[in-house]
């Protein structure tokens, strides 16, 4: 198993890409802390699913915009499984508003969940990794929109652009400690956050036509890449982004 015995924290881990990462990493032998802010029943069901497959997982309810809750998440991993090896900053939200329409409240909410949480969770994990003395990985679930403008969803794009530079800068800073920082930048993924598109036949068709592989990603497509990056097979990768988009950024040029 690629992740045998590793202790992993996944924020926003009870749905969408986060859930797929939990299942994929547990299937490869990891012990997983599932962070959630709502739907405790979904978290409990996910934990039962992991345990039924022979894995180990625990849930922790936490407000990831609060540093004390983030430290409590890391401590839960240590208390439950003896150490922390990987942090997956997966939780994210969007408002789908333009610059002219975004309120201060909307902006602050997106930045708190997407950017502030990733920054201070990475800090908390890095301090734990340094205490342990044998490195670790922070894996950020970013977006193609860390690079690719999306008019009408500006706060989300700004937050993912910030995550891009967090990964590059912190990856350089932390390399001396054997700590890696890597982003995964998905394109369009068939998850609840994209339900407004996937439930509209015309919109879905246009989106699929813009993707060279002519399909949206499944959450498991992203999770498989996360497993690889968390394994020893990716030990020389840091301070960078892995794009998993079916070619949409290239295929849409000129449209």
Tell me what you see in this structure.
With 255 residues, the chain is of the alpha/beta class. The protein has one domain (7-250): 3-Layer(aba) Sandwich (Rossmann fold). Helix content is 47%, strand content 15%. The chain has 9 helices and 7 strands. Strands 3-2-1-4-5-6-7 form a 7-stranded parallel beta sheet, sandwiched between helices. Strand 5 (136-141), helix 5 (154-174) and strand 6 (179-186) form a beta-alpha-beta unit. The radius of gyration is 17 Å and the shape is globular. The relative contact order is 0.14.
The outline comes out as globular
Poorly predicted regions are none
How many E strands?
Answer: 7
Going by CATH, the architecture would be 3-Layer(aba) Sandwich
Largest sheet: 7 strands, parallel
Number of domains: 1
Name the CATH class: Alpha Beta
Average pLDDT, to the nearest integer?
Answer: 96
Strand adjacency order, main sheet: 3-2-1-4-5-6-7
Would you give the CATH topology? Rossmann fold
* Secondary structure tally, helices: 9
What is the terminal-to-terminal distance? 43 Å
Say which CATH homologous superfamily is assigned.
NAD(P)-binding Rossmann-like Domain
H/E element order: EHEHEHEHEHEHHHEH
Specify the helix fraction band. Answer: 40-55%
* Rg from alpha-carbon coordinates: 17 Å
Proportion in β-strands: 15-25%
Sheet/helix structural class: alpha/beta
Keywords: Oxidoreductase
Protein name: SDR family oxidoreductase
Organism: Amnibacterium setariae
GO molecular function: oxidoreductase activity
């Amino acid at each position: 198993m690629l992740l045998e015995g590793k202790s992993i924290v996944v924020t926003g881990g009870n749905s969408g890409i986060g859930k797929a990462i939990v299942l994929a990493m547990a299937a490869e032998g990891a012990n997983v802390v599932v962070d959630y802010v709502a739907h405790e029943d979904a978290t409990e069901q996910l934990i039962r699913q992991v345990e039924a497959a022979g894995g180990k997982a625990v849930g922790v309810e936490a407000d990831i915009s609060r540093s004390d809750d983030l430290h409590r998440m890391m401590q839960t991993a240590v208390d439950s499984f003896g150490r922390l090896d990987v942090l997956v900053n997966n939780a994210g939200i969007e408002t789908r508003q333009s610059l002219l329409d975004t309120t201060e409240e909307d902006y602050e909410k997106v930045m708190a969940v997407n950017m502030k949480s990733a920054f201070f969770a990475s800090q908390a994990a890095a301090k734990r990794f340094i205490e342990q003395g044998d490195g670790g990985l922070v894996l950020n679930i970013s977006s193609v929109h860390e690079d690719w403008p999306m008019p009408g969803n500006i706060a989300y794009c700004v937050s993912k652009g910030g995550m891009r530079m967090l990964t590059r800068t912190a990856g350089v800073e932390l390399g001396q400690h054997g700590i890696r920082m890597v982003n995964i930048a998905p394109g369009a993924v068939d998850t609840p956050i994209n339900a407004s598109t996937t439930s509209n036949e015309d919109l879905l068709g246009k989106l699929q036509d813009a993707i060279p592989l002519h399909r949206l990603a499944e959450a498991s497509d992203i999770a498989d890449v996360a497993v690889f990056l968390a394994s020893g097979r990716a030990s020389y990768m840091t301070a960078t982004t892995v794009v998993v988009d079916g070619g949409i950024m290239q295929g849409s040029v000129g449209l």
